[in-house]
Design brief:
binds NADP nicotinamide-adenine-dinucleotide phosphate, elongated, Rossmann fold, Alpha-Beta Plaits
């Protein structure tokens, strides 16, 4: 008899897949909750083990007594699970456990973008070699069915560009600041922490690593290429101030943390960081911790996905959807997907918004224009709002489409001048998104 079938009156019946949970935190507990609260899933999925460090403090009375709680990962593997759900996070020691599961022929469902960004190609190969699967719907866009939508729904297109707001914390902060007033990033971040939208240390969110890891996963799904996170330029949203939103508004724009990857020949432009986007675009209108992703394909044009990018229950829905997809397939059927190495090249020429904060004196604009001209960059507009102090005066220029490397050279020269109060801030103007 097949390991996963049993005789029944009306012929062979599939046994439920045995599911072991690595991690009982925000997402892990929410996954268990769905499996427990939806008895109609019990003929396909059976939660057998929960593994967590110091597991005693994790035990929950609502989890059935048939589930084994353990802090010894060997116990979990000894139970020969069909599926290991990894919802711990990080690369070590989790990567070793994921490999061990795949090598033993178990499928893996993970929400871990950091692991996938670092080891995605190896893990996919290992899964294929062992005729099993690694699925990761929850790793990007939380509860938004983005991976499935791109992998299955858009497979027929030749995708050219993926752009998105992939980090809810940054979007919460920037959309709050865009609402007006003079709130500083620090005070908005404090509120975000109180409301549970930001971690005690929000660096990975606001400096772009979290969105960068998700972009690596999206590029893998959309282009079957693995871009290395270290090759993707990531800029922090930390320098953005209330003045930037006022100036952006006067340009019909607002500011969001945008993640972008675009095919360019056999390589890719890729970027994560704050950018000006039209206020009326789907990015400009995206509020709070929501995620939104648009994909552009040669044949189908633009498609968008949006929704809750994080949160235990929403993310757990994505995990359980992966479990059900595995239950629908014959056990042992491999996914066969591979991500080949991909190359990141510098961004295309594009217009930029540049904000300076200066000690005002005559000749500053001429100095800036001359430095730009030396790099063959054309000034487009100068914006200066009244009411700022002369010893810390923010003003903005926009420049016509130019190479980023040329702009950075000009800004290095300008930034070294004695009138600068803080380094100039350059944001790409992504007006076509
Ligand atoms: N939360 C979300 O909204 C969300 C959304 C999308 C994806 N994800 C991803 O889902 C994964 C889990 O996130 P989460 O928010 O659920 O995190 P979490 O609440 O911190 O849960 C992680 C769990 O793993 C346990 N753990 C950590 N290190 C361990 C180790 N070395 N050995 C055994 N147990 C360990 C933790 O135990 P302790 O209690 O002892 O720390 C905790 O119970 C991450 O990859 C995250 O990026 C989360």
């Amino acid at each position: 008899m097949d390991k996963k079938t049993a005789a029944s009156g009306s012929g062979p019946r599939r046994l439920p897949l045995r599911v072991a949970l690595l991690g009982f935190g925000t997402v892990g507990a929410a996954v268990a909750r769905i499996l427990v609260e939806r008895p109609e899933l019990a003929d396909r999925l059976q939660l057998t083990h929960v593994f967590n460090r110091d597991v005693a403090r994790k035990r929950a009375a609502w989890v059935p007594s048939t589930v084994t709680w353990t802090e010894n990962v060997d116990d979990l593997f000894a139970s020969l699970p069909d599926i290991v759900v990894e919802v711990i996070g990080g690369v070590d020691p989790v990567g070793g456990w994921v490999r061990r599961a795949l090598e033993r022929g178990a499928s893996v469902v993970t929400a871990n973008k950091v692991l996938l960004a670092a080891q995605g190609p190896d893990l996919l190969q290992l899964a294929a070699a062992n005729h099993t699967q690694i699925r990761f719907e929850a790793a990007v866009g939380g509860g938004v069915p983005l991976i499935h939508g791109v992998r299955e729904g858009l497979a027929g297109d030749n995708l050219r560009r993926v752009a998105g707001i992939l980090n809810g914390t940054s979007n919460y902060v920037l959309s709050r600041m865009a609402g007006g007033g003079d709130e500083t990033m620090a005070s908005v971040l404090d509120d975000a922490r109180r409301l549970g939208y930001a971690e005690a240390d929000p660096s990975a969110d606001i400096d772009g690593d979290d969105a960068g890891s998700k972009l690596v996963v999206l590029a893998g799904i959309a282009f079957h290429r693995h871009l290395r996170l270290v090759d993707i330029p990531r800029r922090s949203i930390r320098p953005i101030t209330a003045a930037d939103f006022r100036y952006a508004r006067s340009l019909g724009c607002t500011i969001r943390q945008i993640s972008l990857v675009e095919a360019k020949g056999d390589a890719f432009h890729a970027f994560v960081g704050p950018a000006l986007v039209p206020a009326g675009s789907s990015f400009g209108r995206n509020e709070g911790a929501n995620n939104v992703v648009t994909l552009f394909g040669q044949y189908g044009g633009e498609s968008s996905f949006s929704g809750a990018g994080a949160g235990g229950p929403a993310t757990a829905v994505a995990v359980v959807s992966d479990l059900l997809a595995l239950a629908q397939r014959q056990a042992g059927e491999g996914g066969g997907e591979q991500w080949l190495p991909g190359r990141v090249v510098p961004p295309p020429a594009r217009p930029y918004y540049v904000r300076f904060v200066v000690r005002d004196r005559p000749g500053i604009l001429a100095f800036i224009a001359a430095a730009l001209a030396r790099q063959s960059i054309n000034l487009d507009a100068v914006l200066q709002e009244p009411g700022y102090p002369k010893d810390a005066l923010p003003f903005v220029i926009t420049v016509e489409a130019c190479e980023e490397s040329a702009l950075l050279k000009a800004l290095a020269e300008i930034g070294a001048a004695d009138f600068d109060v803080e380094p100039p801030l350059a944001l790409p103007m992504l007006l076509g998104v």
